[in-house]
């Protein structure tokens, strides 16, 4: 049984590539979904991982089932485009299987061996029933003695800012590990200073990993905080970097690393994930992460 349970919505991804010889825009089909990416990142770093979701009985659903089987992880569509401003998302998820998920669909037995549950703001944004299902999963995890990890992953196209802030902060108040990005935190709190953001979330949660993009990350507890610089790599696509950070971090915490050591590893894994296109393909395995850290 899995020690890490990730819960959320997998997304079929079409990632924009360079135009073909005839000038047509080409898209590379792949897999996405923030918590699914995190699950794969954790599995590639050696963790025992399970995924709680719902998929359609269609080709996309079959594709995800095959992916998780390959990766050792016991449907909507996302289109990613690129320009000078970075990567952009357009979602097609109305009526997706995960959006129809309900609290009574959460498998309580899955929490018997779980040590960490990982969830995100996206999973609570896609529908009211999915939002309630995440809260129910958090309750089951706490009841079973597992820790809870929460990634803000704010998508304001999915819900109003006021509701997003209320729900996300209520969930983080029930969590043990908070994984906000600085951009998300600014939108949710109005704060721009990283230390002020860390202080805000430490009032809700005892361990905060603040993701600051090219500036690295901050590991903050109520006793101390550590800044970790970003790695310099040839980045081409940051689509799944934050998800890779989350999964790699949780894998190392499960392996016994302290939060700072786990964050150093996760920071390197996230950097490597930006060196290829798509959310899943560039997620590194442990050997590549160790090599970057050693270099």
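^ structure tokens above, recovered residues below v
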């Amino acid at each position: 049984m899995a020690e890490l349970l990730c819960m959320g919505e997998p997304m079929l991804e079409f990632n924009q590539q360079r135009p073909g010889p005839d000038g047509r825009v080409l898209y590379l089909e792949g897999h996405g979904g923030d918590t699914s990416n995190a699950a794969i990142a954790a599995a590639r770093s050696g963790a025992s991982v399970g995924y709680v979701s719902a998929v359609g009985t269609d080709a996309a659903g079959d594709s995800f089932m095959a992916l998780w089987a390959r990766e050792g992880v016991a449907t909507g569509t996302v289109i990613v485009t690129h320009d000078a401003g970075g990567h952009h998302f357009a979602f097609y998820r109305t009526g997706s299987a995960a959006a129809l998920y309900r609290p009574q669909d959460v498998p309580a037995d899955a929490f018997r061996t779980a040590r960490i549950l990982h969830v995100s703001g996206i999973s609570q944004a896609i529908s009211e029933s999915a939002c309630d299902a995440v809260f129910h999963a958090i309750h089951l995890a706490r009841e079973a003695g597992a820790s809870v990890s929460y990634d803000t992953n704010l998508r304001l196209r999915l819900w109003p800012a006021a509701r997003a802030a209320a729900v996300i902060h209520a969930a983080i108040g029930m969590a043990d590990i908070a994984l906000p990005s600085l951009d998300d935190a600014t939108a949710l709190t109005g704060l721009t200073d990283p230390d002020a953001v860390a202080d805000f979330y430490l009032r809700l949660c005892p361990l905060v990993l603040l993701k600051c993009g090219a500036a690295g990350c901050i590991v903050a507890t109520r006793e101390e905080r550590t800044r970790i610089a970003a790695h310099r790599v040839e980045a081409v696509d940051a689509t799944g970097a934050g998800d890779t950070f989350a999964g790699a971090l949780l894998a190392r915490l499960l392996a016994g690393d302290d939060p700072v050591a786990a964050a150093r590893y996760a920071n390197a894994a996230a950097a490597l994930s930006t060196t290829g296109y798509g959310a899943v393909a560039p997620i590194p395995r442990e050997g590549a992460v160790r090599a970057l850290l050693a270099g």
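The longest strand covers residues 76-83.
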